[in-house]
Amino acid sequence: MPVSHAEEGYVTADGRQIGGTLMELRNITLRFGGVVAIKDISFDIHDGEIRAIIGPNGAGKSSMLNVISGFYIPTEGDVYFKKVKRGPMKPYEVARLGIARTFQNIALFDGMSVLDNIMTGRLTMIKSGLLSQAIWYGAAAREEYQHREKVERIIDFLEIQNIRKTPVGRLPYGLKKRVELARALAAEPKLLLLDEPMAGMNVEEKEDMSRFILDLNDEFGTTICLIEHDMGVVMDLSDRVVVMDYGRKIGDGTPDEVRNNQDVIDAYLGVAHD
Amino acid sequence: MLYREAGDFKTTYSEDSQTFPIFFDRMGYYVTLLLAFGLVPLFINDYWANAVFVPFLIYAIAAIGLNILVGFAGQVSLGTGGFMAVGAYSVYKLMTSFPDVPVLIHVLIAGAITAFVGVLFGLPSLRIKGFYLAVATLAAQFFLVWLFNKVPWFYNYSASGQITVPQSKMLGFYVTGAQTSASAKYLFCLVVLVFVAVVARNLTRGTMGRKWMAIRDMDIAAEIIGVNPLNAKLTAFAVSSFFIGIAGALFFAVYLGAAEVTEAFSIQKSFLILFMVIIGGLGSIFGSFAGAAFLVLLPVFLKNVLVGQLGWPTDLAAHLELMIVGALIVGFLIAEPHGMAQLWRLAKEKLRLWPFPH
Question: Which of A72, A136, A191 to mutate to test the interface with B (most CBs of B within 10 A)?
Fold first, then answer.
């Protein structure tokens, strides 16, 4: 099923203007030895949209996200970011391109405070050298306070002011998820990858998280690509959905298109063998 | 109550991120500095300098150095003794080659040389972690001691194989050699320690410290957030070895005066400093001070009590001392694995609510 949207963007059902292609994946195949995790998948992510990747367990969604974030290098196929082909890169180089992510099982720095965790999101923007930092004077101090101000805005946005000095290890699960989102946001990413942002949350926490995702897409114009199992959340939040099953792409389009796609229904509900 | 945190409002980020954000802590820090610089040098004698203060100051420098590597960056090292030896032999070679340059500069250069050697031996950390890295640094320990023992150039071809520090002056006072006064030794080490502690604190509360701790807590996430692991690990090795090299230089030049590498900088030294860091508290500058004080003072204290008060024979006391220190370390680690710094934090938290439990 070809993607019908024009290269230069489209208007969503709720009237938001979506920009041109931000990232394009062409014929991605990922193999681990004999196991084919992803098989010949192509899709694109437009500037400013919320793009979801869904699929049953083991479909290869997280592998796909790892390819996008540069953690896995695809066996075959190319990744284009801002229309430029991205060669094999180290994860920290990808971070400098403006791609940030959160993890399925929270990957925060447990020994550090919430504030320090979020400040790590801005590491790529810091220019002052070791000597300047050692005396805490001039450029180093100035940068520190500038970035702190930006981080405080994110803390306000995500409503975690009261825990900013708490060590992350002591926080409950839902808040950790939020801090992880804050850390990814602190990098001011062009593309934000969320790996199951609502996993293990109750309904209220899911509502909060959904609101944050919509707000940050709306206010900061961040492009978001997310993996999620909660169908209600996915269908409500996302502009376009990619459906994967056994490493293949079986559907791509708006939530309505995907919902009525026979392959997708078969993958989720099973097929009668006659 | 004098000590309180309430009502101490911060209006700028620089106030909020300072080393001692609480007014009373800050005052305590200034008073300690004042006492250390103003009062102690007036009363210090040779016994107090050699048995307590100078070793404490030097071990505190080494402990801060090792804590940066092990506590902040999470890279285990058993090569501290070897790196201290690099500092000691560098300062010896520098002092004998350029006798006119002030010792302080030699000490700093010795630190820089050690930093370079530390980076070399830190290279394996890019591929291996944990116990395996510990073994790699253990190799550094044995290799360096062997090198200084076997290559006569390092000890200027002296017949005994020892290195002996030449006399030198700074600001008109002897700081190394036999004629050095107790207060000069003390003040020299104190100045270096304050410098090291301030630099270490500034690095660890800012960007560099966050990079190190990120690598320590979860290296994969750190990389994805944009930390270059090569850069973070090697700067940790460099900064840590810089401090340890300074400590080694002072240990030889100011404290011992004459040293033989297999005795002064053996594997025991590595373990001693590692114990200081673990008992004091991993990832805490205050913990480095506490650990150094604990392991320097405890043997002195036990010796005074057992030999001085109870009148036991010295050799019995010396053996008992080893057993007691060992038992205390084990007991301590079972009771509080995060060290004295954590104990201090917990005590403060409890006292904040005292006398109420919650």
Answer: A136
